[in-house]
């Protein structure tokens, strides 16, 4: 990244499609995360589980630091071809207020 190159270009295929965002191209993921960080600057994402099998990787992450004190869990499934992410499926629960 210090060379002015966006590292996302190296992990996403040119044919990448995000089912949750209903959009193509790595830029859609970058824009979605940028909006999230802009709205919740204290947000922290922690990888809790990762399972890989052939050309698929599934992750479970926990997100804390929402402005309202809530947390969320996100599940994502990535499909790879030629060492690049070509497809993303994902869902997250609605933020839950912490006690």
Automatic annotation (TrEMBL):
Residues 23-87 form the SnoaL-like domain. Transmembrane segments: none annotated. InterPro entries: NTF2-like_dom_sf, SnoaL-like. SUPFAM superfamilies: NTF2-like. This is SnoaL-like domain-containing protein.
């Amino acid at each position: 990244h210090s060379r002015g190159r966006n590292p996302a270009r190296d992990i996403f295929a040119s044919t990448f499609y995000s089912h949750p965002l209903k959009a193509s191209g790595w830029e859609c993921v970058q824009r979605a995360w940028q909006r999230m960080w802009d709205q919740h600057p204290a947000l922290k994402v922690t990888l809790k589980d990762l399972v890989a099998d052939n050309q698929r990787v599934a992750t479970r992450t926990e997100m804390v630091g929402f402005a309202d004190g809530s947390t969320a869990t996100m599940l994502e499934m990535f499909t790879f071809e030629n060492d690049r992410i070509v497809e993303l499926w994902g869902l997250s629960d609605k933020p839950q207020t912490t006690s």
